[in-house]
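New to this. Explain these tokens.
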Amino acid sequence: QYKPLQTNQHEFRLLTFDAGASMSNIHCELKPAPVDKAPVYSALSYTWGDPSVTRTIFVNGQRLEVTSNLYNALSNFRDLYPGIRLWADAVCINQDDIEEKGQQIQLMQKIFSRAIKTLVWLGIEEDESSKAFDLI
């Protein structure tokens, strides 16, 4: 489902979400863009979580397994920012292509620095963790 990127143009991929109600399946499009001329987007910083615990999202109509932590982040930000364009490494980089991963890792500083904002996902609330944020 991943089409090769134009490495001479320093392309990367961005996710755009289809509108969806909370708790519905995540459907998104993955489109390439040149890093230097990309449309407005946000970058996602998160922990991958346990790779053996996954959920399904639909990318360009195809099923893709992602970690539960990433699924929760995508679901949260999709609902919070309708129409958001997002870069998330586990989806936007073809994880099965070692050469592409190497090229994209070299672009990550540029990808994060050109994002309009970086969204941080620490995970869903557990054991009254909101109290720690209130204290901060």
About this structure: DSSP finds four helices and seven strands in the chain. Helices lie at 68-80, 89-92, 98-114, 130-135. Residues 12-65+72-121 form one domain. The mean pLDDT is 90.
